[in-house]
Amino acid sequence: MADITYEKIKDLSTARSIPILTLDQRWYQLVPEVSKTDEIKFWEGRVNDLLKRQGQITNDLADVKKIKAQLIQNVVDCMEEDDNPRHQKKMSKNQKLIYEAKEKIQSLEDEQMELPRKLAEANRQLLVETVKVCYSKINENRKDLEVLNKWIDTTRIKLKKNLLIKQDKENVNNALYSGMHDILGPEVMSELDKINDGE
Question: Does 13 have pLDDT greater than 70?
């Protein structure tokens, strides 16, 4: 059989709508732990890492936005106070922290925008590796089924022949015994049966 490449599946438009495999219980039934290749383990890990990162970014964004809001409130509070140098220093520090928070938020939002593409790509790669394993098993089973079907057909023919031979021999035995019984009678046959059976 020619070397088959399943990479083409990634280009199918329908493959783009495949749910995240590691979140689908049916995927774990398709590919139990013992069937996982190194490639499947790698892409499964990659998908799960990206899912965790997605959750982490959401939490980090909420935290940084909360901190930024608090810093802005501190700056506003400091503006209302007198021109105390200590307040000015605190306000300057808060403004610097606000700028850093703004940069951090931008960085997290950029990563958040990029994550779905990376996640989809890793999921499609996991799909390719899953399909390889499943079709490999299907093709292997098909070959085994061909061998088994041939064996079953051959055995079925032999069984039919042997059943006919068995039936033939039983008919001959019944005819011989019945013939002897008719000629010799039941008492003689009873004694002959004992002799034949080694009693």
Answer: no
